[in-house]
Amino acid sequence: MTEQAKKVALVEDDPLMSGILATQLISKQFQVISMNDGTKAFERIKAEQPDIVLLDIILPGVSGFDILDQLKRDESTRAIPVLVLSNLGSREDIQRGISLGAEGYLVKANNMVEDIVKKVGAILDKPH
What is the CATH number for 99? Predict the structure, then answer.
């Protein structure tokens, strides 16, 4: 029996970034659920129950911080690891993301797509 592909929820409103990341994740045998709007992201994540969430902060509708807060407050999504992937790189933003329960916080400009994919794999390989 083959192991089922790990499911990654990708919440990213930049179509170029979303496309590149999704392509890389799929090439590493991940199943990708893409969302480009913060408004319905929480409900979709709750319904899909992904293994990890890659979450942008600046989104149309609802901010990534609000989505992260909702995910960590809800019993059914609390245990899903969230990796923040944002252009916001101030110490305050990073601390806010971590304090809201993010597993990690990556600044897009400082990370290659391959590094992001490796980080996803490392988080999923950790016992939770």
Answer: 3.40.50.2300
Is residue 102 within 8 Å of residue 34, measured between CB atoms? no
pTM: 0.95
- Residue 90 CB contacts under 8 Å (≥ 6 apart), including other chains: none
Residues 61, 128: Cα–Cα separation, whole Å? 31
How far is Cα 96 from Cα 100, in angstroms, rounded to an integer? 6
Position 75 in a domain = yes
**pLDDT, tens only, 3-13:** 689 999 999 99
Tell which residue, 83, 92, 88, has the closest CA to residue 109: 88
Instruction: Give per-residue pLDDT as tens, 50-67.
Output: 999 999 999 999 999 999
How many domains are contained in the chain?
1
E strand map for the chain? 7-11, 31-35, 52-55, 82-86, 104-107
